[in-house]
């Protein structure tokens, strides 16, 4: 599966576009639409086109991660919500999560309830993450 425009718009909305490096709430050096990694350096500046290119590459990585983690058929909305969630948290955390265990058990109602548990940034409840998780859970439950 591939992320739909709805899923991409969700990621863009919650990540926001920043053309200069910054530290996210968890203290990670970030640029563009939530791009992190060893190629992100302090003081770095990029164009919107570069931010879009990072986003395309990052989304592809998280599409593959979700496809590898999930062993049951998903709707497009479920896939989009899981890609957004994984984009934000990283595949390592998501792979071992109760949310993925519930998805793979086919317990989609319980899986949707798991999104809300992932609301901490730097050890503190983040209102932005509370809002993002609610949007992801809503999308996950959309038919």
Automatic annotation (TrEMBL):
GO terms for molecular function: lysozyme activity. The keyword Flavoprotein does not apply. CDD domains: lyz_endolysin_autolysin. Keywords: Antimicrobial, Bacteriolytic enzyme, Glycosidase, Host cytoplasm, Hydrolase. Its EC number is 3.2.1.17. GO terms for biological process: cell wall macromolecule catabolic process; defense response to bacterium; killing of cells of another organism; peptidoglycan catabolic process. InterPro entries: Bacteriophage_GH24, Endolysin_autolysin, Endolysin_T4_type, Glyco_hydro_24, Lysozyme-like_dom_sf, Lysozyme_dom_sf. It catalyses: Hydrolysis of (1->4)-beta-linkages between N-acetylmuramic acid and N-acetyl-D-glucosamine residues in a peptidoglycan and between N-acetyl-D-glucosamine residues in chitodextrins. Signal peptide: none annotated. Belongs to the glycosyl hydrolase 24 family. This is Lysozyme. It comes from Novosphingobium guangzhouense.
